[in-house]
Amino acid sequence: MPVLILLPWRSQKIEFEDRQQQLIADTLWVEQGIRFQLIRNEDSLRVLGDDIIANSVAPEQLKARFSALIQKHPELHQLIWLDAKDQVRFSTRPFTPADFSLYSKQAIVHARSSETPQYAQPATQEGEDSVILMDYHLPLFRHNRYIGSLVVSYEMSEILEKLVPWWFAKDNEISLTDIDDIVFAMRADGGYGHNVYTHSRNLDLSGVNLILKINSIKSTPRLLSNYLVAAVVLLGLGLVWSLWALWRDILRRQAAETALREQMAFRSAMEKSLVTGLRVRSLDGRLVYVNPAFCDMVGYTEQQLVGQKAPLPFWAAEAIDSYQKRLPIMGKNMSLSGFETVYKHADGHLIPVLIYESALLDDDGMQTGWMGSILDISDRKQAEQILRQHEERLESSARLSTMGELASVMAHELNQPLAAISSYATGALNMMKMGDVEPSVLQPALIQMQNQAQRAGQIIRSVHDFVVKREPNRTQMQLKAVFNSVLPLIELQAKSYLINVQIYIEHPLPDVLVDSISLEQVILNLTRNALQAMQELTLQQRILQIEVKKYGNYVQVEVIDHGAGMDQDVVDRLFSPFFSTKAEGMGMGLNICRTIIEFHGGQLTFRANPTGGTIFCFTLPAIESSSTIEG
């Protein structure tokens, strides 16, 4: 009898639990579908960003690809391309930077400073009344220099309309909110929820807490109104119900197994199509999974890798210490991303890789291991090496160009000691032809000949040291030594322009870590520009000033001319490659100078001279005399 009384109540509870579990499973599936689409869009945007960074696609082609991406994905509201000054280069809709919401402007700053993509808190955009948008900012950097951003805007209501299946929306009220329950979008095709079966999932997007909330429109299962009738019905239909329940469970099991097989086949196909290596490690560092792309990358089979513990067979000997140092860090439930290292292929060659690591969690939020994504960056490293070699060739060409301009002045300067040597030699020969000559009489002439020969040799050595191509070699030294080496060449140029050179070097100065030949090229280039800027002045105004002094934790060098200054259009393009105000100029001088100074950890700037002309200024990090310099 108690069983008959409790049976309807138990049936109601079981149905309630089944509905709740089904809602949780469906919610997880919908949440994964939304996240998967957002990740696909991020990957598509990253591909466009890589093309912009590499400058491998024409702007018109890029714009066409932007428009095609928006048309293909209706959940995308607009796509914006910003330049380095955050000005719009292209937008699929009419847009200005002032239209960004406050949250989006904050996300731009954070993405640029952290050099990582960032979502902005959903908000209404200026000029888009009642439309709530969520912006995703992808900052673009070329050689660690910010060159712009790609921004894609999602219309919150369209995320629910386009990415949530109709059958799920028919039975549930779906909303996107923040942690304060502020609703950004809602979809209720079948009506509003009854707050009986509810579940929520955090979408876990970088920079924004976005929660997917599900509220079923189904009500609580009702008990039968008459327990006696229920008992009779249950007794009469018990056997039939048992058979039906068994058949239902069999069908559900078969459907679940079919869905599981399809899901496994889908995931297997997706993993095989990836070019990114994936590996999973347990908390004790044991490999439990590797995908085919990772096996191809390191040259080992899945059977050779799964189950292995540190040291792993693909670890390079020279990087084992760094691997071992990272293992304790990885055990502290922290996510590491974007660190570079090297792996060793099975055939012995080294592979530079970029690793993204994140915690692997179970349904209870407990960490079970680590998921790693590994990118082979061999092509990128090779491209960087080619770029460095290209820059070195440009530096060498610039030095040769500089020496070409100095050739005539240098010829005049060498002519003086050579003429003096010839005169002293002729005088000595004449004295020897006259008869007995005491050595003490010839000695002054020979000494003068030696001095003049050394002077000519010093000029030639200075030119040779400046022009010769070699690998950069930074050493700790005083800037005064660099200026002592390059000053003869500066004075050679100044003589041809009838310009007076005034140099002031503060004493004492801290040491700097520099490549002297590269720095000489910068100084000679800046001084040559300054000299050429003053060739139209009167003789009294032709003064080149060079000041070297300590500036905080830096040593600062200023090259000051008194010429006519620069027009605004020249100022805006001054450091652009291949831009020159000289008909015979290559337009690479100042660009190379800035690259050299930034390579040394400093900065090259310029400003107008209050008394007329221009002041070029560069800084170099100072090194205290007691510091230890690592090789």
Which labels suit this protein?
15 helices; about 625 residues; 7-stranded mixed sheet; alpha+beta; 6-stranded antiparallel sheet
Give structural notes.
The protein is α+β, with helices and mostly antiparallel strands and 631 residues long. It contains 15 helices and 22 strands. 22% of the residues are buried.
Helix content: 40-55%
Q: Given the structure, what is the number of helices?
A: 15
Tally of DSSP β-strands: 22
As a percent range, the share of strand residues is 15-25%
pLDDT below 50 for ≥5 consecutive residues: which ranges?
583-588, 626-631
| Largest sheet geometry | 7 strands, mixed
- Mean pLDDT across all residues, rounded? 79
Compute the CA-based radius of gyration. 37 Å
Structural class: alpha+beta
Note the overall shape.
Answer: elongated
- How far from one another are the termini? 89 Å
Quick summary of this structure?
This protein is α+β, with helices and mostly antiparallel strands. It has 15 helices and 22 strands.
Question: What is the strand and helix layout of this fold?
Answer:
Blueprint: H1 2-54, H2 59-72, E1 76-83, E2 88-91, H3 102-114, E3 118-119, E4 123-124, E5 132-142, E6 145-155, H4 156-163, H5 166-171, E7 172-177, E8 183-187, E9 198-202, E10 211-216, H6 227-273, E11 277-282, E12 287-290, H7 292-298, H8 302-305, H9 320-330, E13 339-344, E14 350-361, E15 367-376, H10 378-433, H11 439-467, E16 475-477, H12 479-497, E17 500-505, E18 511-514, H13 516-533, E19 543-551, E20 554-560, H14 568-572, H15 589-599, E21 603-608, E22 614-623
Parallel strand pairs: 17-19
Antiparallel strand pairs: 1-2, 1-6, 3-5, 4-5, 5-6, 7-8, 7-10, 9-10, 11-12, 11-15, 13-14, 14-15, 16-18, 18-22, 19-20, 20-22, 21-22
